[in-house]
Amino acid sequence: MTQDSPFSLIRRRLLQGGLAAGTAAGLSLPLGVAAQGNRNTDKVRIGWGPGGLPLIARERGEFEKNLAAKGIKVEWGGPFPNHAPSLQAVVGGSADFGFWGSTTPALAAMIAGSPLVFTQFNVYGPRSTAIIVKKTSGISSVRDLAGKKVAVNRSGLGEFLLVAALEKNGVDRSKVEFVYLNPPDAAPAFGQGKVDAWSMWSPGVDIARQQFDAKTIFFEGSDLDFLIDYSSLVTSRRFATDNSALVRAVIDAYRLEGKWLDEHGTEAELFAQKEGKYSDAVRDHLVSLRRKNKFYEADDKAFLTEFQRAADWLAARRILPKKINVTDYSVRV
Predict the structure, then answer these.
(1) How far apart are CA 272 and CA 267, in angstroms?
(2) Cβ-count burial of 43 within 10 angstroms (0-12 exposed, 13-18 middle, 19+ buried)?
(3) What are phi and psi of 294, to 5 degrees?
(4) What does the pLDDT read at residue 36?
(5) 194-227 pLDDT, tens per residue?
């Protein structure tokens, strides 16, 4: 394990990406204040990744047509392997939005001083992030991870799921080696036996489970006591202030995309399969989940209460370096 904390590495990367300048210039909207409807650009740069809403929106083309009807041109940036690099793109000025990524690295970036805000939240279900091991590993439960190496993405969904699993099963974190790898590096490491387990989300975990003859020992959908991480649409505070009408248009277009995805699960998975290049068996498994998307506005009090509970849980376990008031970084447009 490295000596750097998750927080210090994220802070360093964001500083390298332009955090210092962004912090000075990006706080034009006071904390906790809703943005007013305005627009100062006709172009929006949006991050995308190997799965989820941005991929479907990019592949279908209806998202771009929807925004074009409002005089807004879409430029796609990516693909990003996970949320942290897409956040760096927003901070560094090469993107206006990250993709619909994990709230945990976004919170870590905000604590580090990044001028980012949440503009919308999404909860999809059923959840399918899991900790997997090879069937030949001799590992049959989370308790068997003591003395083992587990691949996770730093300050993200994979790491906090492992922390929750160890805690629930009475395993001291110090007894397990956290190996911090992004998904493209974690998959071969798991396949080659350089790590003993992998904590990962769909479709990566589903692909690896089949490709490497693996099994699940902890499943988010059934073994996690309460939801600790959500999907979020993040932009800079300045962009939300200067272009709130455009941000609203992007949110509304994504909501339409989510509705289409809910109603066309098989077609959506065909888009994802084409990009991910995985087997029909994996595709059919993902179709069988019949996932649905539920969106929440950034000022939804009931949602923010649950989100604050999750953020406090993460801070108490040092996945986040300190507590954060999520309302201060949630802007309704």
Answers:
(1) 9
(2) exposed
(3) -125, 125
(4) 59
(5) 999 999 998 899 999 999 999 999 999 899 988 9
The SS3 call for residue 68 is helix
Lookup: tokens for 125: 């279900």
pLDDT at 35: 53
On whether the 6-126+229-329 domain is CATH 3.40.190.10, my answer is: yes
Least confident of 140-144, 194-198, 273-277, 303-307: 273-277
Closest CA to 216 of 198, 229, 228: 198
Q: Which residues contact 185 (CB under 8 A, 6 or more apart)?
A: none
Does position 23 have pLDDT exceeding 70, yes or no?
A: no
User: Cα torsion at 46, 48, 53, 57 (round to 10°)?
Assistant: 70
What ranges do the domains of the chain cover? 6-126+229-329, 130-223
Bridge-based pairing of strands 292-297 and 116-125 is: antiparallel
Q: Give yes or no for residue 230 having a pLDDT over 50.
A: yes
Q: Which CATH class, in words, describes the domain spanning 130-223?
A: alpha beta
The pLDDT of residue 14 is above 80: no
How many CA atoms, within 13 angstroms, populate the side-chain half-sphere of residue 169?
21
Q: Measure the CA–CA gap between 25 and 228, rounded to whole angstroms.
A: 31
244-288 tens-digit pLDDT: 999 999 999 999 999 999 999 999 999 999 988 899 999 999 999
**Which contacts (CB < 8 Å, 24+ apart) does range 264-272 have?**
265/290, 265/291, 268/56, 271/55, 271/56, 271/59, 271/60, 272/50, 272/51, 272/55, 272/56, 272/203
Asked if 332 contacts 35 with a C-beta cutoff of 8 angstroms, the reply is: yes
Q: Do 6-126+229-329 and 130-223 share a fold? A: yes
Share of the chain above pLDDT 90, in %: 77
Q: How far apart are CA 73 and CA 250, in angstroms?
A: 11
